[in-house]
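Worked example

This section walks through a single chain of length 199. The input is the sequence exactly as stored; nothing has been trimmed or padded.
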Amino acid sequence: MQHAAPLARLIDALRALPGVGPKTAQRMAFHLLQSGRDGARTLSQALTDGLATIHRCRRCRMLTDGELCSICAAPGRDTALLCVVESPADVVAVEQSGSYRGRYFVLHGHLSPLDGIGPEQIGAREYETLLDSGEVREVILATNPTVEGEATAHFLGERAAERRIQASRIAHGVPIGGELEYVDGGTLAHALAGRIAQR
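Given that input, the structure is written out below as tokens.
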């Protein structure tokens, strides 16, 4: 069945969301137009406002509506620690752990030459400017444990090493409460390679 042009555009627009396929986008569109019109108006206004006011923090590239994000503006953060992550969602995840009090640098992706994503696209120049500021003493590379994430961590670690700044990689391994028989081989290999002495 062919949808009316405005409905087809709405379905296509909803498909831009991560994890939303054609059927889910169609269900969302029907819901918004059938019984969720007030919610749709609220969603539309929130998107319009967000696009008009949200941008990247000038220091760490986190999403914010001010010149600096709340983390960069907080006086109690440890400026000597810089945690590098791939996305704003990663900042939220680290913050929820409650165990990190340093600052961040958000790449908004990872190196992927096949997709045309090189150092310029992940903010390499801004990252190097932060390293050259003299404040950073350790870089914590918290990119994802994928081939691209590892390559990105290696590249960023080399930039830190050139400046004699310590770079460390977050540990990967068996999750708390996990059972070895259910852990995949790659994760188990990382856990074995990154083992620490028992005290």
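What to look for: The two ends are 66 Å apart (CA to CA).
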